[in-house]
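Encode chain A's predicted structure.
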Amino acid sequence: MPSRSALLSNYHFLRTNDPELALDRFDALGMESIETARSARPFGVHVNHLQLTNLGLSYCAYDSDVALGFREASFVRQIFNIDGAGRYAAGKQSGRLPTAHGAR
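Encoded structure for chain A:
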């Protein structure tokens, strides 16, 4: 796969290997948990974020598999998986998130 520059690369927000620091920085967006996968690759995240008046855009690239938990909010969160696989659960509803390359 050809390499590509990080989306929103002019708006660096965070780069860390510490899940607690990442959770603390994302508290304002309603994130309440980060669960890291047990794998040979340690946790790492690179985040770019652009805040416009009523719209925030974030690009997050993780070094390993993670599960993210969010609190209820009075705003809409829309997640687009560019690569990998994703699932969601909200109340009694759950399902897969499609990737930019199609559902896997």
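DSSP finds one helix and seven strands in the chain.
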